[in-house]
Structures are given as C-alpha cells and as structure tokens.
Amino acid sequence: MTIYIDNKPYEAKAGKNLLEACLAAGINLPYFCWHPSLGSVGACRQCAVKVFKDEKDTQGRLVMSCMEGVRDGVRIGVEEATAKAFREQVIEWMMTNHPHDCPVCDEGGSCHLQDMTVMTGHDYRRYHYKKRTYKNQYLGPLINHEMNRCIQCYRCVRYYHDYAGGDDLNVFAAHNHVYFGRDKDGVLQSPFSGNLAEVCPTGVFTDKTLKEHYTRKWDLTMAPSVCTHCSVGCNITAGERYGKLRCVVNRYNEEVNGYFLCDRGRFGYEFVNSENRVTQPLIRGRMSEAVSEEELMHELSVLLSQQKLVGIGSARASLESNFALRQLVGAGNFYAGISETEAYLTRLIVQVMQEGTLHSASLKDIEQADAVIVLGEDVWNTAPMMALAVRQAAMKTAANNAAAQLSLPAWHDAAIKELVQTDKGFLANITVAGSPIDNIAQVTVHAVPDDIARLGFAVAHELSNTLPALANADEKLLQTARQIAAALQQSKHPVIVSGLSCVNSAVIRAAFDIAAALNNTHWKASVAYVLPECNSMGLALMQAPSAERIFDSSNANDMTALILENDLYRYLPQATADAFFSRCSNVIALDSIHNNTTEKAQVLIPAATFAEADGSMVNYEGRTQHYYKVFIPKEGHIKESFHWLNSMRIAKNNRSNGHGLSLDELLHEAEIEMPVFEGVHDAMLSPHYSIHGEHIPREPHRYSGRTAMYANLNVSEQKPLQEEGESAFGFTMEGFKGQPPADAAPFFWSPGWNSGQSVTKYQQEPGGAFKGHIPAVQLFHDKVDKAPVFFKDIPEAFVARKQKWLVLPQYHVLASGELSSYTKALASLLPEACVVLSETDAALLGVRDGDKIRVHPGTTALPVKVHLSLANGVVLISAGLPGTEVYNWGDWVKIEKE
Amino acid sequence: MQSLTNRAKPVDRRPMNFMERMYLPAVLKGMSITFSHMFKKAPTVRYPDETRPFSPVFRGLHVLNRDEEGRERCTACGLCAVACPAEAITMEAAERKQGEENLYREEKYAAKYEINMLRCIFCGLCEEACPKDAIYLSETFAPSNFARKGFIYGKKDLLIPDPKTEAADLAKAKGTN
C-alpha cells in the first residue's frame, strides 16, 4: 500500500506501524522504547509525527508513530514543525536528569540516546536544578549498572522479563523515580543478560568485561565473525585494539540469532587474550624449547616422513583446517577427535538430514513454529540461543492467537500481552533433568533417555498409524503421548528439537519419526538436532571415524599423531586418551591454548583463534558460515591451522605447485574432494571482492591515533599489517566509504546512527532481511517428494540396574563448549562440578546433598546434588567445566561413597 | 607587457658615469646605513635568556591539566584523539578504583596517554574537543631531544605539577614565582 510521508508517496507493508514504515523508507525518526523484536508500547513519546485526515487537512493531529498502524493512503508529517518541536521537547525532558557523563560512559560513541538527541536538534540545557540520582547495583561480573543514565524507556525489563523470561530484573517505584534493577544486589541469573547492554538505548547497562580494556566503538578494528561456543553459530562482530580482543557484539542475522546473543557467546571471547595462549612453536626436550619457524619446519619434515602418520580432526576447528589436515595425512588416516559414541550419533544425524525428507530448522523457523517438542535435548545448556528461540515460539504462538481474536496488529505489544496473560503456545519439554524452559511448557516430562525415545515413538504412532505401537507401555506414557499428538495435530508448522545430550540414538530416531509423520500436506514440520561444538556438523560431514577407532587398526603403535585444535581429554575418558598417547611415538599438536593434550605434544604449533583466523563452520542445521580475521596477532608465529598444515604438506611432499594454498583454493579443493561440501566457498566473500577497486575497511573512518598508537615502538608510522594473499577487507580505515554488503559488514554504522541500532539502515525493513541479502549456503537440501524412511526399532523400557547407574553429562549454560571456560568473567560464574542423583538413589547410597562420592572409572570425588524429579538409575555428572572428568557417556558406571 | 601594479619602477639602464664607476660613494653610503644601526634598538631578543611576549592564544606543547585538588582531569574519553587531524594522540582508559579518588577526578582516567609530537601540527583541535578542560596547549614550544623517541610525550611529560604537593614546580612552570 502507499503512504504519504511529508507529501511524498512511499510503499509500505500492511501490518506494520508508522514508525516501521518510516524507518523502512529510510527516514530518520527518533525512537527509544520500540524495538523490532519487542514491539511497541508507546512509553517514551519520542516518535511523534503528525497524521492528516486528507490532503486538505493542514492541522493534523500528533500521534506516536509506533502506536499507529499503516493504512492505505495515510498522510503523515515527520518534518512538521509541531511534531519536530514535540520530539525536541521530549528529549529535553528526558535529558533533565541525564547525567551528561558521556566522557566516562562506555556507551559514548555508540549511544542511541546521543544519536537521537542530535537527531532532534536539542542542544542547550535549560533545566538548572538538582538532578535525580540513584544508587547503582552490583549485577555480577558481566553487566555494569549505572542507573542515573536511565531515560525510562522500559526496554530492559521488556527484554529481560518478557522476551528472555528472566525474573530477577524488574521495574520498581513510580513517578519521576522509576528504578530498573534487581530487588537487591546480585548476579543477573539469566544467561541472556548481556543483551541488556545492546537493548538499553543509553549507558545504564554496559558490558563489564569491556571495561577492563575499554575502547570506543570508533577505535575498534572489527570484522564479521561467527560465535565458536556452540553449534548454533550466531553471528558476531568482534572488535580489537592494540592486539587485544576488546568486545563481542551481536551481528544481526535474520535467520539465525536475530538481535541477540547468549552470555557465553558475548562474554566468552576473552580466551583470545589469555596468558595461556600458545604463542611460539615449541619442540619439547630441547635445550631451548621455543624454536624458529625454520627449525620447526625442519623438525616437522622429519616427523612427517614417518610411516604411521595419523591426523585427529577437531569439532571446533574450521572446515578449512580440518580439510587441510585430511589432505596432509590422507583420507584413510584422518580421524575425528571425538568419542565413538558421539561420532556414531552425529553420523546418524547427518544420515537423517542428508536424506532431505525433513527441513532443517533454523532459529527463525523455531521462533515461528506454532508447536515445539524438545525431545531429550538440554537446549538451555547446550544451545542457549535455541532455548530462547523455543521460548519465542511459545510466546509468539499465544500472541498470534490473541492478535487474531481481536485483529490486533502483531507489533502492539502491550495490548497483546494484556490479552494473552499467561497463555503460551504448545511446548513439550521432554528432558532427563528438566530445564528452565519447563516453566513455559505445557507438557514437561523428566525421564531417562530410553523412555524419552519411547515417548517419542508413541507420539509418532499416535500421529501415523502405520508406525509401530509401543510394546507393553504404561498408561501414563501413552496419555502424555496422546496429549502431545493432539497438540501437534492442531499445529501447522511444528518443530522437533533433539540432539546429543541424551547420548542415545533412539531419541534421535524418535525425533525424526515424529517430524516425518507430521511432514505432509497438512503440516510442514522441521527438525533441529543440537550438536556439541561449533563445527561438529562440518567434521561429521567429512565422515571420518572417531579417534577411538585408531585402536582398531592392527598396528596402532609408534604412530605420529597430528592433533588439530583438540583437547582429547575433553572428548575421551582419561584412560582412553592416555592409551592413545602411549601408542604415539610422536605427537604434534596445533592449538591456541595450552591444555592437557598440548602437554603431551613433542611439537606444539601456535594456532590462531577465531579472531585471528579466516574460516568456515557448519552449524547444526547445515548452514555454512564464514568468519573473517579481526586482527593479525603481534606474535608473528600465530597462524591459522590450515596455514601451518599447508606448509607441512609442502614440506612433506617436498614440492609445491603453488596451488591449493589460499583459502578459497582450499575450499575449491574440498568441494572437489568431497561433493557434500558443494557450494561452501560461496559462504565467504571472495578474496578478490572489492567495491570500485577498494577494500572494505575493518576500521570506522573515525579511527583515532594512527600515527601515535605504536609510536612508543617505532616513531615512524608503521605500515598497517596486511594479510598474505588477497582479502576483501583491509586492516585500516582506508577503503570503501559507503555501506558495505550487509551480510559481511565489519560493523554497522550509518551517518547519524552510531549505535548498534544503525542495523536498521542495512535492512530492507526493520527486523527484516538485509538489503541485497545473499541466501545462506545450506548443505542439506530439502527433497519435497521423497517419502521418509521411518525408524521402527523401539527400545525397551528403561529398567534401573542394581548397583549400576547410567551416566549422562550435565552441561552448564556458560561452558558446554571448550573455550568459554577459559574466560575469566565466565569462569567466575561456573558452579562447582557435582554429581546429580535421584532422591531414592541417594537414599540407597546413603548420601545427602554435599556428600562426596566417586563415580568409577573417574578419579576425583564429587559432591552430590539430589534432584527431586530425576529418574532412578541415572547419574548426571557435570561436564565441560574446567577440570571435570570425561566418562563414557551413556555407559553404566559404579558409584562409591567417599 | 603591462605591469601588474602601478608601483613598478622603470630600470635605469644608462651606462655608469665616472663617479659611479669609482664605487667609493656607494660603498660609503652603504656603510653609513650599517653604522647608523649601531645606535638603534636591536630588533632581536637574546633567546632563550629572553623571550618575547606570547599571544594568549599561542599554541605550543600540550599539558594535561589537574583540578585545584591536584586530581587528573582527563577521563580518557577519546574525543581529542578523534578530533586530531594528524592522528597523533592515543590513549588507554582505565577505571578508577576505590581509594584513588584523590588521584583522578572522575571514575575513568587515562592509564596511558601519548602524543606523538613529531606528528602533531599544533592546531589545537584537541583543546577544543576536550569536554573536561583537561588538555591545553601551553606557551612552551620548540621541544628538543637527542632521540626521536623523546618526542613521544607520555603522561609524565604532559601532566602539570600537582598544585598541592608540587606548588613550587607549578608556579615555576607557570612563570609566576
């Protein structure tokens, strides 16, 4: 439909509000309380415009544009004198109590309030009285609180409380002293608290980890990157100055993370600056262990000529690095650095997804689902952003239903919330030990993995009679199955979420069966399988056998093992890993951080982290995403793993034809070698990409101190570091000055919009797709007409064994991936490792909360935590926390009282 | 060719007469001008023992200011650095800790503050940009040093003496003692 803004016609989408329409049309209209993900409440009164009755109307009436829907032919005035004066006054009024402490405020330079104040034209202060002041609260090591800067837009509580479901941040008091905070000082409990720093339009909530090494946004060298802490692969922008990674902020991706990140992703970057980094090539057992690159390559050329060379790939290394390793050691000698169980389960998922009968659900698909079943996956802890998406599905379904009743527009947040009250869309959360999303679920089941799978199969049977029924099932389970099936039948596009945290293949099969049974003309179901690490899917697609399979080969002795970015002690039980190392005569490890595996290495090579490297990763849904170097480390020896591996390949073959060495050549080679990766090189911006012959600058044009930054090292201005080979990005502020392609924008900035909200200028419409959006590279292709092949092998019901327990991992939301626990701020929030037992089992063993028990074959005794709804016969052990031991998950173990 | 101004004098190109060819009168005339200057006031000053008065807007080397209580005014907001057309200023901010209130005026301060004086063009935009009255261009100029490194002015070179503990130094620096 057409709307008239200041007498100029614009196209607008139906169902939007006037503010969204104005922003989509590229008009600068100030706002605070409205947010594309949160909707409108009309709290700040900032986005006032004039609406006219018709062409002849000159008077018009003042409305809040975020609270007025788009109508065909509506005439509005943004530049109208009354509207402008009103907006200026609102800012002036908000600024009466604002402390004007921009010089010491972390938000300064990327502040929505600054931008909006300049936009309205308010400049001089006329209020000369005492300002209202507040006491600030301690909100934990991640978020800083400075309440005086507040302008009462209510975005923080609306995000934290309504959107993310946190219950420990709220709004207190009234009138001119409204307070946003906790009821008392304390750590914010939600693992999504970091988004407050971006949601808050001013500096009330800021990133506390950034404070440790504060840098203004304009002084950061930034690059588009991808989070490496779980298999979701949220898009991030990482910023560097002085060779240190300073902060990570959200990089909008409509289909993946939208506007938000979890705390693990946002604050888990600091391992890059860790003192524990490997910075120098080491050859152990020499007089001086740190060696030069020539000495290293000399040593390696000897080691690599050994007969039994095996390569251990990594689920947290990029596709390129894994492929380079595979090429170096040969496909037959390439193993995945994961346990056999994990390899088996991921292979099963790959097989299911490659069949193509089911659509692989992106986070956006999950958010838009009208029914969600979480089957056995502890999403909250293994893929936090997916848990947030599941929550949105439940909230949005209820909101959509309510909105349809009264034909309310979707953006009318306050009205819809009023109508919805506590209604939720359908969510069945079926887990081993429960999760925080239980409180929004209609059906919550806590059961052992086999019973979870049986419930899944029972639901599938209810949905499709052709599928086998459960043998000797109890009535309660069938009743639950019927309830879930009935809800699913009401839905149109349900999503089934499952994954590896149950360590049970039947759960994965059951999830497939439910989704496949729902995938026909009536329903469009999709499925999401959560994997443990950021590139687990990429590694799984390489179809390499697990590291445990090395023992199968008859002559697995005196091996020379090349271990790529992998702490084997995190994936294999200690005994297995020790056995592996005892059979290796030489261990070459490539890693960025010292860990138990690098301790075993004779040759240790410094690998780059995500911030210093280019690379591609495949997320849980088969989406290939590319991340780009943020900076080149000062320690010149740190290089991308694939770089080292390529050099080794040349050293080993003793010749080089100069091919297959650059990143895109390596990806091309991978595509030829493994057709499953076809198209992966499209995920990256070609190294030859330029706009009018210019690079995309990684630094904003206001970047300061260029001739002074390194003046203490060398007085003459240093030549900026450049990558070897070509790149679409430059490391300075020089380059293309216009808007870069939004999908690979190193940072979001637009004239007049310094804060992260400038992303609107890169979108086709607020909260929509990017301008010139390039479709993501999906490695799984939907095949519409293919009939699914159902799984029909249903496991027997779980029976608890005597004196033996089924051992399962219990991950923590801030540390299910390896690297985030190396971050100081997050490490301080990690709980102590513990063993979770059911009440009956604890009584059976004669232990109470806090008593120490030893789980065989583990060596350390851990405190007991009694869980009220955990099934008997299962023991959950903290996994992924620093120092925790690894068990053969899904195996039976003995427990001994200390 | 038409002359550009009306002040052009035509050159006398006649051959010199006898008196002129002797040169002596011309030499004497010149020497008399030279000797007459011996009795006039010297236009130069004996720098550095003597200096000329400065204009109040003179832009010399920078100083980082303190407040009356001797606390550093700079909060490392970065505005001087971003305003600097020569990109000669760089700094790193730090948070004031408890017990440091007597050192720093506000909750942030510059842990490191450097000006590359070889790059600086003394335009004074930093002074103009500063929201905290922290950076001023002083009347000192012509820095000299034996090494290029000496021209990288850090905080210890820039900060003015503490008015409370180093009052005498401050007065000397100001030239008011």
Number of strands of chain B: 5
User: What CATH architecture of the domain at 292-338 and 539-696 in chain A do you see?
Assistant: 3-Layer(aba) Sandwich
Count of helices of chain B?
A: 6
Sheet with most strands of chain A: 7 strands, mixed
Count of DSSP H/I helices of chain A: 25
- Overall mean pLDDT of chain A stands at 91
Rg of chain B (C-alpha, Å)? 27 Å
Strand residue content of chain B:
5-15%
Specify the structural class of chain A.
Answer: alpha/beta
CATH topology of the domain at 62-174 in chain B: Alpha-Beta Plaits
Cα distance spanning the termini of chain A: 73 Å
Oligomer: heterodimer
CATH topology descriptor of the domain at 292-338 and 539-696 in chain A: Rossmann fold
Kindly report the greatest chain-chain contact and the residue count on each side.
Answer: A-B, 25 and 33 residues
Please give the largest β-sheet of chain B.
3 strands, antiparallel
Low-confidence stretches of chain A: none
Task: Please characterize this protein's 3D structure.
The complex is a heterodimer of chains A (898) and B (177). Chain A is an alpha/beta fold and 898 residues long. Chain A is 26% helix and 17% strand. Among the domains of chain A are: 96 residues, Ubiquitin-like (UB roll) (Roll); 205 residues, Rossmann fold; 188 residues, Dimethylsulfoxide Reductase, domain 2 (3-Layer(aba) Sandwich), CATH 3.40.228; 93 residues, Barwin-like endoglucanases, CATH 2.40.40.20. Chain A has 25 helices and 36 strands. In chain A, strand 25 and strand 26 form a beta hairpin. In chain A, helix 8 packs across helix 22 and helix 13 crosses helix 14. Chain B is an alpha+beta fold and 177 residues long. Chain B has a domain of 113 residues: Alpha-Beta Plaits (2-Layer Sandwich). Helices cover 23% and strands 14% of the residues of chain B. In chain B, the strands form two sheets. A three-stranded antiparallel beta sheet of chain B has the order 2-3-5. A two-stranded antiparallel sheet of chain B has the order 1-4. The interface between A and B is medium-sized, with 25 and 33 residues.
